[in-house]
Specification:
The complex is a heterodimer of chains A (479) and B (1030). With 479 residues, chain A is mainly alpha-helical. Chain A has one domain. Chain A contains 16 helices and no strands. Chain B has 1030 residues and is α/β, with parallel strands linked by helices. In chain B, the strands form 12 sheets. In chain B, strands 5-4-16-15-14-6-7 form a 7-stranded mixed beta sheet, sandwiched between helices. The longest helix of chain B has 18 residues. About 3% of the residues of chain B have low confidence. Classes of the chains: A mainly alpha (479), B alpha/beta (1030). At the A-B interface, helix 2, helix 5 and helix 10 of A face strand 30, helix 26, helix 27 and strand 34 of B.
């Protein structure tokens, strides 16, 4: 390709010597081209799974929470476990798009759009659980402090569950705005590529009539920054508030001050794992290897290693605190986690979250796609177990031994959880199909094309001229 | 809420007498009903009357069915009975509950003519206001949809005229042809029944009357025939005994007149500062019984060893008896020596008793009591029981005669021999073959289904009767509602067939009048009549008694089986009562089943999980006398090593929806030992199968010590839950076992200096005291709470899934050696914490604190997040997992008609008839809301209103919760903590035994517990301790 060796100062963020046009074509192609059978297949499966989840939800609403395995002692089980798990997953999207934007981490551009989409979909899935875990879901609106004629009856601002309502609705709103704002110029791009009037109108509507003037770009950039600024504290606050559900209670194993940082670290940890899972799938299905590079994967694995170790330290700190506190209930709660009837859940958590990410100390493993995929799945499982450990194991044996019970889920609970995965995947795959899965405008901003590409273009021209000359020569001989 | 009060007039502000008088009236205005009349015209009401009359006349004339009004069912015929029924105000009727063994004087609470609750009759002798679980639940039997609505002929509906005509014809025909008639009854404690039978026998002299008890005490009567010369069961004065020694005697739970005995027993079992004394209770038993759980010392003995133990004891106290031989277990031998020493030291102030239906054992007991001089003091042979008066020998003879086909007529007077005797097949054949077969069962039960005629008896709440549990004691039964169905009292039927057409009411009234002298009304109003003339009675003839004992003991083969009775279900007659089915066994904590109780040693040997957390237990094949049954296995701590125990009273096939196919029927294994029913067997084999069974277990963790597997042994014991001490220590220091409380109180502080807990020092501050010494674990409070507060029954499947709803439960903990542990019962209900962890976590403020210290629930506001239940340290909050009472706004998804979901509720409150039992003062809860103990807030409110109307303050003891009124041992005391004169406040402030559970956690509960004091020398053991660790 080049006549002499050049050592790259930094690995390029986008491979394959893309031009602006290439970027537009590559990314818009996935929304305009023919439906790929692979996509159709996975989307159909996801939709079927999602429908089953909806069926299970309907079943639960019709017959009652009694169709679950939750019981008089373990009032929350898979429902809140899944809720916290999904919320945690959402965190990576916000972190990538907001915090990394503020820190000017250019590498995020390849993944931030999908990560933000993941956040939105994960929060949708998460939101289902606190709503449907209510015994009387039809009265769910009681949790909003709306004006009413019931006199002094008002929501209880002391309840962490109420804080959750505000935290999550804010989080969802800001994330949605942020995500959509990013999409606006890209919708404009898709609109410009449209070949039918209907499609043109549709994307024009979505892009709010974006025409890419300097004023547009200026406003767009300031809005992005403001929203990033707004989102940044949310990364910390949402999971902190979720952790208050536990930290402010009196249940041994819940009532600990370590909960907020521990939950935030865990959320970022699980979020990155999920981003990786999705990216690796999208990368192979949509053929985006040149946009989501090994460098991305390695960066994310580094964050996983960091947050995983933080989470692990939190686990060990909890054990230390329990011992140091001399609080018998606390001590028992942790002994019971490790050696009680649910020991397997605890050790699964320990292995997946603390032990297994340690392989990422080694560069080779950080850059190994298959291993990264396996690890991302393991971490997702481990983080699910973490929430299960915190919720179910703490509850099933708390103060009075007479009430100690075992909990196991029913098909309805499992069905709802699997169903949310279906909902999530359906939404995500639809997103990949109809929306630009990679932020076109932002990726273009990091394309280092001016020098390199011009030169290679020249080189190619030279080459083609040579070919032309050769062919003419040959042709001449034929003549 | 603010306490601002706006006055509406100057009179109100000044509280003038006129105003007070006016305010005390609920409707202080006159209604003018005569409007319009003055003008000479027809007024509105007259017009309506005329309209109503003409419409109904037209309806009658056209022979149409009069449309049924489905509004409030005023089932009382107000013309005859009580014209003063006021809607919304309860009426109480004195009555008597008796099922042949259990006897309780009750007050029946009726609302708008419906009996809805049973209360104890505190004025009545014997039971003194105490009730049993069965009595509490009996109100639901009235509304049982399985009851027959009409008499039947060959299981087809008929009417009384036809049935009576046919039966009398056949009876006459049989008598004329010289055929014999068998009248098979249960225990007859009713003089009315006796007279009715006399009349019947006079008319049909070829009648043989056989009365039997499904679970019999006949051996006691027979032994007393030998020892005392009369076949009696004496009264036991537990209150006069310093030492009580029981041999498989469950006198507190399933024994004869257990409520009366529990009252007497507990009189000397609760020490106080003023009177730091307790009787001592030793119990020799084959399986852990409720009574054994209350004992100070327990010695597990196999059924075959009981006789040997008694022989040894008799010899040890100086009786001349042959056959003395040490038992295998050294501890039991030591125990016998110790007991003998104590008995000799308390001669005349002790009692030895056995519940085993074995002649030799009862004779030995009589001999021991005779030598100790207990007759006349603790054993009263002058006042004897009419309860459990069945005759095993007569039943055996009858069965023999039935085989030969000599009886042409069989009348089952409330008995069910096909179900509850070992002669099931004989009765079935005989009934099928008989020329006349009649049953007076209230449903087509196992026996009635084969009878030609079923003449349904009325429920006791619809009946007139007299029950005489004991010599000179009479309890009166009066109807509290007209018969719901076309049923008739069995006594009336008998009298009718004998040609006496006196209505039963008239007959009973005249009998009561004759008994009490004068009018029948005062007697019926008080509900009882007592005419106890003498106490004491003759003593046993020791020499003759010992001479009659066969001291030879046949060594048992294989495993021994001990058939026992459960305090909830009893002999199985009330099996279709879901309240009783769902009441957990006090010891095993299992609902809705009988099972094989296996000793701990056996479970350990077989490597079974002794505390299966997932409630799945193996099924065992038990082979007895060549017959095999399969039952789940439950480890019973404290059971004798070579014994298995199975409860009788289960496996009903035709009891009704709740009772059918619950457990297995083991009556067929009851064998006859020289004509006396023996409830023990040997030669059993037990074989564990691979099958697993999902048990309706109420408690899966049985000790206060946490897992042995876990590290940190020192910190494992949760002694702050059940504090206990010994009498010796208590006598030295009234804070014994409770010493840490001072320190806790001192160190109690909040992290927030500015924080002051809510102040309840003004007005009322409700609280409750639970005496762990007084609680015998019977479960009457649990059922009373369920009935009073419309607490749903959920069925076995839901109990297995730990989704039961009991607001009040009795936790049972074991301590010590699992082969013979100490037992503690702890009633647990909402603690109404002043710092309630449940309150601050509710997002919608559905649960909060009232100004009088109640933790209250606004069901309408609850959205069911269950956060409060999670945060409750006492785990007393209950969630409506499913629609249990048909109150779901989404329609009846859980009405039991869908069998495709295994998670559905077994709803027992869906039929309109059953729902009549619901307490109208307590709202039924919909699916998806949390509920819990409210301290019977409806009763508090009623008490407060009454006091207010009368312009006075509430008196202590005026408001009593349902659990408190039900308790036979006064273990629960409810009251106002701010009323320093109240029993509760005195207990809280002055009793050294008072403590609060998890007090150091600063929840500030309003329920105090009294330290359990055991009258034993050994210090309390902490947790389960294996043999090798001791």
């Amino acid at each position: 390709m080049s006549s002499h060796f050049e050592s790259p100062i930094r690995e390029p963020l986008i491979l394959g010597n893309k031009t602006y046009k290439d970027v537009t074509n590559d990314i818009v192609k996935s929304t305009t081209g023919k439906v790929q059978p692979k996509w159709l297949f996975w989307t159909s499966i996801s939709a079927v799974v999602a429908s089953f989840g909806v069926f299970c939800l309907a079943w639960e609403v019709c017959f009652g929470i009694g169709t679950w395995g939750a019981n008089k002692t373990v009032g929350w089980a898979w429902d809140i476990t899944n809720f916290v798990w999904w919320i945690g997953i959402g965190h990576a999207g916000t972190l990538i798009s907001a915090i990394l934007l503020l820190f000017r981490q250019k590498w995020r551009t390849g993944v931030n759009r999908a990560a933000e989409a993941m956040t939105i979909f994960a929060v949708i899935c998460a939101g289902l659980f606190p709503i449907f875990h209510m015994g009387r879901v039809w009265d769910a609106f009681f949790i909003f402090p709306y004006p009413n004629t019931r006199g002094p009856l008002w929501v209880n601002f002391n309840s962490p569950l109420l804080w959750d309502v505000f935290a999550i609705s804010t989080y969802f709103t800001v994330s949605l705005l942020f995500w959509y704002t990013g999409l606006v110029p890209d919708f404009g791009t898709i609109r410009d590529q449209s070949k039918t009037p209907g499609r043109w109108k549709f994307y024009n509507f979505l892009s709010f009539g974006w025409i890419g003037t300097a004023k547009h770009w200026e406003r767009w950039e300031s809005l992005s920054l403001i929203l990033a600024g707004l989102s940044t504290p949310l990364v910390l606050s949402v999971h902190t508030i979720v952790s208050f559900d536990f930290a402010t209670s009196v249940v041994p194993g819940w009532h600990t001050t370590i909960m907020p940082p521990y939950f935030v670290a865990g959320a970022i940890f699980s979020g990155f794992a999920m981003v990786l899972t999705l990216m690796l799938i999208a990368r192979s299905i949509m053929g985006l290897e040149e946009y989501i590079t090994l460098a991305h994967i390695e960066s994310m694995n580094k964050i996983i290693l960091l947050t995983g170790t933080m989470v692990g330290i939190a686990y060990l700190t909890e054990i230390f605190t329990a011992w140091y506190s001399s609080n018998q209930y606390e001590q028992y709660a942790f002994a019971n986690r490790a050696f009680g009837p649910y020991w397997w859940a605890y050790w699964s958590m320990m292995f997946c979250n603390l032990v297994s990410p340690q392989v990422f100390w080694i560069r080779k493993f950080r850059r190994n796609i298959a291993l990264t995929f396996v690890m991302s799945i393991l971490i997702n499982i481990g983080m699910w177990f973490e929430r299960f450990v915190i919720i179910v194991i703490s509850l099933h044996r708390d103060y009075l031994p007479s009430s100690w019970l075992y909990y196991s889920p029913t098909w309805v609970e499992i069905g709802i959880f699997v169903g949310t995965m279906g909902i999530f995947m359906t939404l995500f795959l639809s997103f990949c199909r109809f929306f630009p899965a990679i932020a076109i405008a932002e990726v273009k901003s990091i394309l280092k094309i001016s020098g390199d590409q011009y030169r290679s273009k020249q080189l190619e021209e030279v080459k083609s001229q040579e070919v032309y000359q050769n062919t003419t020569t040959t042709a001449g001989t034929w003549d | 809420m603010s306490n601002k009060k706006y006055w509406t007039s100057l009179d109100e502000l000044n509280e003038t007498p006129q105003y007070k008088e006016q305010a005390s009236k609920e409707f202080n205005y006159e209604v003018d009903t005569n409007e319009g009349e003055e003008n000479g015209g027809t007024n509105r009401r007259d017009f309506l009357k005329a309209m109503g009359f003409s419409v109904s006349v037209a309806a009658l004339a056209s022979a149409c069915k009069i449309p049924t009004n489905k509004a409030i069912p005023y089932t009382i015929d107000t013309r005859k009975a009580v014209p003063e029924v006021v809607p919304g105000v309860a009426d109480y009727f004195a009555s008597t509950f008796c099922d042949g063994c259990d006897y309780v004087s009750v007050l029946v609470k009726t609302r708008e003519g419906r009996p809805i609750k049973i209360e104890g009759n505190a004025d009545a002798p014997l039971t003194l206001g105490g009730t049993s679980a069965r009595a509490q639940a009996s109100v639901l039997n009235l509304y049982d949809v399985t009851r027959l609505a009409t008499p039947t002929i060959k299981n087809k509906k008929s009417d009384w005229k036809t049935v009576d005509a046919e039966i009398t014809n056949k009876l006459s025909a049989i008598t004329q042809s010289g055929g014999k008639i068998a009248l098979v009854t249960g225990t007859i404690a009713s003089p009315i029944t006796k007279k009715a039978i006399e009349k019947f026998v006079a008319k049909y002299p070829s009648t043989t009357v056989v009365s039997y008890d499904a679970i019999s005490n006949y051996a006691t009567r027979k032994a007393n025939q030998i020892s005392l010369g009369s076949a009696i069961i004496p009264s036991i004065n537990f209150d006069k005994a310093d030492v009580i020694v029981g041999f498989n005697a469950d006198f507190l739970g399933t024994g004869i007149s257990s409520i009366e005995n529990a009252k007497k027993y507990i009189a000397t079992r609760v020490p106080s500062k003023e009177h730091p004394q307790m009787s001592r209770h030793h119990q020799f038993q084959s399986t852990m019984s409720m009574t054994g759980a209350s004992a100070d010392y327990r010695y597990p003995v196999n059924p075959s060893e009981e006789k040997q133990a008694l022989i040894n004891l008799l010899a040890a106290i100086g009786g001349t008896v042959t056959g003395v031989k040490s038992l295998a277990d050294a501890k039991t031998n030591e125990g016998i020596a110790k007991v003998a020493k104590e008995l000799l030291a308390t001669k005349g102030k002790s009692v030895v008793l056995s519940g085993t239906n074995d002649l030799d054992i009862q004779l030995l007991v009589n001999a021991i009591n005779g030598i100790l001089g207990n007759y006349g003091s603790t054993i009263d042979t002058a006042n004897t029981y009419n309860l459990k008066s069945g005759n095993d020998e007569a039943l055996a003879t009858l069965a023999n005669d039935l085989k030969s086909g000599s009886y042409k007529g069989i009348i089952l007077l409330g008995s069910n021999p096909i179900y509850n005797t070992p002669y099931s097949d004989i009765f079935k054949e005989a009934i099928k073959k008989a020329e006349l077969s009649v049953s007076t069962a209230d449903r087509t039960d196992e026996s009635a289904q084969f009878c030609q005629y079923v003449c349904p008896n009325s429920n006791y709440l619809e009946s007139w009767d007299i029950i005489s549990p004991k010599t000179g004691c009479y309890g009166f039964v009066q109807p509290t509602i007209v018969t719901l169905f076309d049923t008739r009292q069995a006594q009336e039927s008998l009298m009718l067939w004998a040609g006496d057409t006196t209505p039963i009411g008239t007959f009973v009234q005249s009998e009561i009048a004759a008994l009490t002298g004068g009018s029948y009304q005062p007697g019926v109003q008080s509900g009882f009549f007592s005419n106890v003339s003498s106490v004491g009675g003759p003593s046993a003839n020791v020499a003759a008694t010992i001479a009659a004992v066969k001291t030879s003991i046949v060594a048992p083969k294989g495993m021994e089986v001990y058939f026992y009775e459960k305090v909830s279900i009893g002999d199985g007659a009330h099996a279709n009562n879901p309240f009783l089915q769902e009441l957990p066994d006090p010891i095993a904590k299992v609902t809705w089943d009988n099972y094989v109780c296996i000793p701990y040693s056996y479970a350990k040997e077989k490597g079974l999980d002794v505390m299966p957390a997932d409630k799945r237990v193996p099924v065992a094949k038990v082979t007895l006398n060549g017959k095999t049954i399969e039952l789940p296995v439950v480890v019973q701590f404290g059971q004798a090593t070579n014994t298995i125990a199975i409860a009788l009273g289960y496996g009903r096939e035709r009891a009704g929806r709740a009772g059918d196919m619950v457990g297995k029927n083991v009556y067929s294994f009851v064998k006859s030992n020289n004509g006396i029913a023996a409830y023990t067997l040997d030669g059993a084999t037990l074989e564990l199968t691979d099958k697993m069974y999902e048990l309706g277990l109420n408690q899966t963790y049985h000790t206060l010590m946490e897992d042995n597997k876990l590290p940190g042994k020192k910190l494992r014991y949760r002694g702050m839950v059940v504090k206990e001490t010994t009498l010796k220590d208590f006598q030295k220091n009234e804070n014994a076992g409770n010493e840490d409380r001072e320190k806790i109180k001192e160190e109690l502080h909040s992290l927030y200096d500015a924080y002051t807990p809510n102040d309840y020092s003004q007005g009322h501050h409700w609280g409750m005291s639970v005496d762990l010494n007084a609680c015998i674990g019977c479960g009457a409070c649990v059922v009373a709470c369920s009935v009073e507060n419309n607490v749903p029954v959920v069925g076995r499947r839901q109990v297995y899934r730990s989704q039961e709803m009991h607001w009040l439960r009795i936790d049972r903990y074991y301590n010590g050696n699992p082969d013979n542990p100490d037992v503690s019962f702890q009633p647990m209900m909402c603690q109404h914490c002043n710092n309630a962890p449940c309150e601050n976590v509710c997002p919608v403020n559905a649960t909060n604190h009232s100004s009088d210290g109640l933790n209250q629930m606004a069901y309408n506001r609850c959205i069911g997040t269950r956060y409060c239940a999670n945060n409750c340290p006492y785990k007393v909050r209950r969630f409506n997992w499913l629609d249990y009472q048909g109150t779901d706004s989404f329609g009846k998804f859980n009405d039991g008609k869908r069998s495709f979901t295994d998670t559905e509720a077994q709803s027992y409150m869906f039929e309109d008839l059953t729902r009549m039992v619901l307490n109208p003062d307590v709202v039924t809860r919909t699916r998806g809301v949390i509920e819990k103990c409210s301290f019977c807030v409806q009763r508090i409110q009623e008490g407060k209103l009454n006091a207010k109307k009368e312009g006075r303050t509430l008196k202590d003891g005026e408001v009593r919760t349902a659990c408190q009124t039900a308790c036979p041992t006064n273990a629960l005391i409810f009251g106002d903590q701010n009323n320093k004169e109240s029993v509760l406040a005195k207990t809280f402030d002055k009793s050294g035994r008072n403590y609060f559970i998890f007090e150091e956690q600063h929840f500030l509960p309003a329920v105090g517990y009294q330290v359990k004091v055991r009258n034993k020398a050994e210090e309390p053991v902490r947790g389960f301790i294996q043999n090798e660790e001791i």
